[in-house]
Amino acid sequence: MFHVIEDEPYLLKVTKDFITTAGYEVIGFESGDAYLRYFHTDSYLPPVALITDFDMPGKNGFKVIKEVRKRIPFLKAVIVSGTIEIAANIHANKHICLGLAKPYQPKQLFSLLQSLMECEQSNPPVPACLKSKRCGFGIEHGCPFYTNSY
Questions:
Q1: β-strand 26-29 against 2-5: which pairing, if any?
Q2: Distance of CA 15 to CAs 4, 25, 75, Å?
């Protein structure tokens, strides 16, 4: 299952529809604040990955990821943005697995979903992932599957 946070209703619907069509379960949220309300409930189900817009009213994507990682430090997180250069943002690199630039093509999202699932299957949750020397994406900066990250 994937969790998607997107404050633009049309993009949220299209993204959810695409993820469902690709064969995966998805839950969508219209804001970081709405996601965090769900996160703090007893009904919260951890996703394979959190895919979140960066620039949103209320808590932005980075703040949401940081808060969630306090309780689930190995959560895979992807930031989607059309307003910043993620690769150049050192702060972002400490907290995300990957960045996806808007506008993106469906094949880019599909490839991302496949990569996240492959990473999930090859890097199971704690404690096995602590033995891994590298993130399944090959990222050595801040990746939760890289042992020197924490």
A1: parallel
A2: 8, 12, 20
Q: Does the pTM exceed 0.85? A: no
CATH classification of the domain holding 17 = 3.40.50.2300
* Block residue for tokens 């306090």: 70
Residue 14's CB: how many other CB atoms inside 10 A? Answer: 14
Q: Round to whole Å and give the CA distance between 42 and 74.
A: 19
Domains: count for the chain: 1
Give residue 32's domain range: 2-123
Q: What does the pLDDT look like over 56-79, one tens digit per residue? A: 899 988 889 889 988 887 788 888
Assigned domain for 21 exists: yes
